[in-house]
Amino acid sequence: MAAQAVPTDPAAPAGPAASEEQPLLSVTDLTVTFPTRHGDVRAVDSLSFAVRRGQTLGIVGESGSGKSVTSLAVMGLHTGARVTGSIALVGRELNGLPERELNRLRGRRMAMIFQDPLSSLHPYYTVGEQIAEHHRVHFGSRRAAARKRAVEMLAEVGIPEPARRAGEYPHQFSGGMRQRVMIAMALACEPDLLIADEPTTALDVTVQAQILELIARLQEQRGLAVVMITHDLGVVARVAREVLVMYGGRAAEQAPVDTLFADPGHPYTRGLLDSLPRLDDSDDAPLRAIPGSPPSLLDPAPGCAFSPRCPRAAAATPAERAHCAGVRPELRPSQGHLVSCHLSLHTAARVQGGTR
Amino acid sequence: MTAGTAPLPSVPPPSVPLLSVRDVTMTFPGRRGGRSAPVRAVDGVSFDLAAGKTLGLVGESGCGKSTTGRMIVRLLEPTTGSITYDGRDISRLGRRELKPLRKDLQMVFQDPHSSLNPRQTVARIIADPLLVQGMAAAGARKRAAELMEMTGLIPEHIDRYPHEFSGGQAQRIGIARALATGPRLIVADEPVSALDVSVQAQIVNLMERLQRELGLAYLFIAHDLSVVKRVCNRVAVMYLGRIVEVGDKERVYAAPAHPYTQALLSAVPLPDPVAERARERITLLGDPPSPAAPPSGCTFHPRCPKAQEICRTEAPLLRVAAPGEAREVACHFAAADNP
C-alpha cells in the first residue's frame, strides 16, 4: 500500500520496448525488521526506489537512517532479519531466493564496496589471490587465467605495477589503493550493479576525489548502475543523478539531484542543506542547525520521525502538529519531488515566510 | 563581563600573541633494531595565535596536525623548538610545573564517547578537572551544573552516564569538561567530524558562542575545509609535517597560493550539483607519502602539478607570498601565477 508512487514503476510489462526502460534494480516496499530483546526494530520501513543502467542513485542519511541496512538487504546479506517487500534485479526477485542462488548473483551480477577496505580484505591472502578467487568461483576459470584477470583489473583501477602489486598483501597498500583493490575485486566479474556504501568516508579528500573519478569512469565504460550511499551531500551532488534522502528508516524525499538541491521539499532535507558550512558561502550568520538528534529506531514515534525536530511542525497549528506526531506521512509527489511530509504543500509557504 | 562601567571587554595588546609556536619538531623514535626508521611527524612548524581568535589547522591524515595540537597542550614534549604561552616558554616544563597551566590549556577530542569515561557520571567527568585544581567537591558539582547549562545540556541530567547521551550531547559534555577550569586556549581536534551532519552545526554554533562569551582562543584541527572556513580567522595548511601555507582565512580560501592548498580546496565536493558540474578540479596523483620516508626537496613535489627541477632538491621556505600580504607560502612557484 505504501509508497507506490515511485516514478519508475517496477511493474512494467516485459515487452521488448519496455525492457529498454526497465530499471536494473527496483526495490518496492522494502521493510527490514530486526528482532531484539527490546522488541522489533524496524530499520527500514516501506522503501521503494529504482536504478537504471549507467545511472547513479545517491542514498543520503545519517547514522541509523537505514541506508546501510538497505544496501545489505539488496545484497541478501542480512541474517536474522525479516526482510519483506520486493528486490528485483533485471526483473528477477531476489528476496527469498535460496542462499545458493544468491551466491551465484553476488559478485557476478551485483557487487558491493564498503567504507573500510582494510576490514573487508583478507589479511592473509595477496590481493591478486582475492580478486582471482571471484573469477574462479563464478567462471570456473583456471588459476593462471584468473590471476591474469586479477592483474588486468588492478591495472584498470589505476594501480601502478599491477603484476607486482598483485602479489602483495592488503596491509602493504595505502587507504586509497586498498579502495581501488576493493573496486577491482567488485568489478572483476563484470557485475551490472555496484553498491558503494560510504566508499570514500575513510579517505582523505584528495584521495576521495580520485576514487569518485575512478568509479565514474568505470561506470561510463561498463554501463554500471551505481547506488552511492553516503552522509556527505557534497559527494551526492557530485555523482548522483537521482537522490533518496532517508530519515529514521524511511524515505523523506526522493528527487532528481538538481531539483533536490535547488528546492528541497522535505524540511529535513532543507535543514540539512541549511546547516552545512559551505566553501562558497559567507561565514557571518550562525549556521542554521537542526535541533535535537536523529531518532532511535527502538522506540519510533507513531507519526513522522522528523516531527520532534521539524521547524515546519513547530510553526504549525496545534492540530497540524498533532497530525505530524501521530500519523505517518506517505511519500507523495510534490513539484517534481516525492516528499513524505504532511506540511509540504499547503503550509510550506506560510511557515517559511514566518521563520526565514 | 562586568556590567555597565566597561563596555568593551579587555583585549590584550595585539603585538603579544597568546600562543607562539616556533620551529617545533616532533620525532617519534623508530622501532628497536632499526626495523623502522624514526618518524618526523612535525617538522619545523611555527605560528601565532591571538587571544580570542581561532586558527584552523588543516591537512590530511598523517600530516602532523594532531601531533602539533598535542604538543601545544603539552600531552607531548616537542623534540625541538619552543612553545610560548602567555609570554612563557612551556615546551620543556615538567609535570609539576605544567599542572597550574592545565587550567589554561584544554582539549576537546574527536570521538566524544571514547573520550569520556563510561563509568563516571557527568558530574564527575566535568568536576574532575576542578577537583584536581583544588576546588571543594560541593562547589565543583555546582560549577558542573552551570557548565552543563552553558553548553546546552540539561543540568538535571548531571548524575547520568555518558551512554545515556547522544553523540552531540556527549560532545557538549566534552566541551563542558574542557571549560571547567576557565581555560583561555582550547585545542579542538576534529571536534565535529564524528558527529552526524545535522548535529555538527549545533556544536559549531556552540563553540562560536562560547568563544564570544568567554574570549576563548581555539586551535581548531580538522580535515573538513568547509568547517574550518566557517570557524577560523586564520588557517594553516599542513602537508607531511610542515606548514605549506598560512594566512588570513579570506585570502587562503579565495586565492590559495600553494598548489597543495589549491588541490585540497578543489577536491572538496560542494553540496551543489550545478556548481559541481561547472567546476574544474585539480586531481592529485598518488597518495600522501609516509612521513617515515619523506621525499627530497619540497615534500609535495611527487604529487605537484607544477613541480620543476628545483622542487626535487630544495625545500622551499615559508615566506610572504606577495608584498604586504598577511599570508605565507612555502612554494618555489607560489607567487608566479597568483595575482
From TrEMBL, chain A:
Gene Ontology molecular function: ATP binding
Biased composition (Low complexity): 1-18
Broad class of the protein's primary localization: membrane
InterPro entries recorded: AAA+_ATPase, ABC_Ni/Peptide_Import, ABC_transporter-like_ATP-bd, ABC_transporter-like_CS, Oligopep_ABC_C, P-loop_NTPase
Keyword Membrane carried by entry: yes
Location of this chain's protein in the cell: Cell membrane
Keyword ATP-binding: yes
Keywords on record: ATP-binding, Cell membrane, Membrane, Nucleotide-binding, Transport
Ranges for domain ABC transporter: 25-273
Sequence segments annotated as region (Disordered): 1-22
Membrane topology category: Peripheral membrane protein
SUPFAM superfamilies, sorted: P-loop containing nucleoside triphosphate hydrolases
Pfam families: ABC_tran (PF00005), oligo_HPY (PF08352)
UniProt similarity note: Belongs to the ABC transporter superfamily.
NCBIfam families tied to this protein: oligo_HPY (TIGR01727)
Full protein name: Peptide ABC transporter ATP-binding protein
TrEMBL record, chain B:
Keywords, alphabetical: ATP-binding, Nucleotide-binding, Transport
Domain ABC transporter: 19-265
Family annotation (InterPro entries): AAA+_ATPase, ABC_transp_ATP-bind, ABC_transporter-like_ATP-bd, ABC_transporter-like_CS, Oligopep_ABC_C, P-loop_NTPase
Signal sequence segment: none
Record-stated family: Belongs to the ABC transporter superfamily.
Protein's recorded name: ABC transporter domain-containing protein
